[in-house]
Amino acid sequence: MDCDPQQRSLLFRGRAAKRYWWHTGPGAPAFIPPVYSCLSDDEWNLIAAWFEETERLNLAGECQVPLMSVMQGLIMGSQVRSIVQAGHYAGYSTLLVGFMLRRMGFRRSLFTVDIDRMSCDFTASWVKRAGLLEYVHIEQRDSADPSLPGLAEQYFGEPPRLVFIDSAHTYGQTRRELELWFPRLCPGGFLICHDSSAFAATFDSTGQGGVVRAVTEWKAEHPEVQCMAISGPTTFPGRDAVYEDVCGTFLAQKPGPARGSP
Questions:
Q1: How far apart are the first and last CA of the chain?
Q2: Average pLDDT of the chain?
Q3: C-alpha to C-alpha distance for 211 and 20, rounded to whole angstroms
Q4: CA-based radius of gyration for the chain
Q5: Whether residue 2 has pLDDT greater than 70
Q6: What does the pLDDT read at residue 4?
Q7: Which of 24, 95, 110, 185 suits 148 as a labelling partner, its CA being 20 to 30 A distant?
Q8: Residue 40 phi/psi, 5° resolution?
Q9: pLDDT mean over 2-9
């Protein structure tokens, strides 16, 4: 489906589904966010078609504009070219990050992992449709599998510069991912965890405190690491909060000089 470039995500303002919360209701923005406005017409039309298909299949569950805007600033602002994604579900963030990497000309730069075969197959079909096979590798595996960092480094030809964790949202899995991936970042590299708010702790199917407990404990055990817990609102939706995503975001930077520094 073709969309007017002047409208793009503004078309979401008339949709009632919860996944469109950033675009709807009182205080909704009357502009197209850069994460969408920077796309080519073909790229935006593919994202619009992805929303239609995932709506039809009831596959909503993607992260939102606030987090993707943070990701875009880090990736494109600093030319981050080796990115591990733990958990991609239906592929929303995979496609958007893939488009960023293609814009920068960085092939073999996104290594994305999900344990679910259906999610991998669905995402792979859209990655192929988007023409991103040279930029994205999809791996069906537990994102805490100890063999994965080596495979990712082999794919990139270097350690990852950014690890994005958005997988099971359980306390135990997040602890395992933190302990596995953070040591394998290059010096100065970043790790981002989505769903790190108290609100998002309810996503933990094991009832053990979710991502927020995992990152809070991990941060206390690693005082040498620079960390920031970006808090969202306490209730949904969060239009009155400075950072509008109720799920929150956790950001950590590995000590040491950034790669390429003197």
A1: 49
A2: 94
A3: 23
A4: 18
A5: no
A6: 66
A7: 95
A8: -70, 165
A9: 76
